[in-house]
Amino acid sequence: MSEMLTKRNVVPETMRTTSRELRILRAGMDAPELISNCRVLTLLDHSSRELNHQLRTTLQGSQQPVLKLDEGDLRLTPVDFAYLLSRRLTNVLAGVSRAAVARLVIVYSPSWAGECRLPADAQRIRIAHRQIRDLLRIIYDQETAGQVQIIYGGFVFEEELADVLCDSNVDGVLIN
C-alpha cells in the first residue's frame, strides 16, 4: 500500500528550492557574470514562515541565497505591487540581520514578462526594482539596501536592455 501524501510531508511547488548557477549581465559588461552555488527560494503568495526559515538557514551556510519574487500572471499597478511586496518581503526577512541580508540576491521575475509585452513594461520593471530597494531601505537602512543585488529575471527585448540596465536600482539582468 502506498503512503498517503498529506500537506505535512509534501513540499508545495511554491516552496521548493533549487541549487544552480546564475548568469547575470550587468551594465557596462561585455560578458555575463557567473554566480555559482545558488540556492533559489521562490516567494509566492503563501505563508512565509517556512521560507523565512529556509532563507535564514541558507544565509548561515555557504550557498548564495537568491530570493525570487514573482507577482504572478497579473500586471499589478505600482500601488498593488508595493502592497504585495511589503507584505511578502517583510515577513520573509523577519529576523534576518543587516549583515546577512547584504549577501542576498533578489531576482524580480514576473510571470507576465514572458507573455504579451507592452511598451510601458520597461518602465514597470524599473519601478518594481525601485520599490524593492525602497522597502529594503525601510526595513534596514540606505547602506544595506544598496548592498543587496536586485536582478531582473524576466523576458526583456534587446531594444529595452540598455534602458533597464541603466537604472540604478537594477543591478543586472538574468540570462537563462
Automatic annotation (TrEMBL):
Domain of life, per lineage: Bacteria
GO biological process: gluconeogenesis; glycolytic process
Keyword Transcription among UniProt keywords: no
Gene3D superfamilies assigned to the protein according to its UniProt record, in alphabetical order: Aldolase class I (3.20.20.70)
InterPro entries for this protein: Aldolase_TIM, TIM_sf, Triosephosphate_isomerase
Protein's recorded name: Uncharacterized protein
Alphabetized GO MF terms: triose-phosphate isomerase activity
Pfam families linked: TIM
Keywords (A to Z) from UniProt: Isomerase
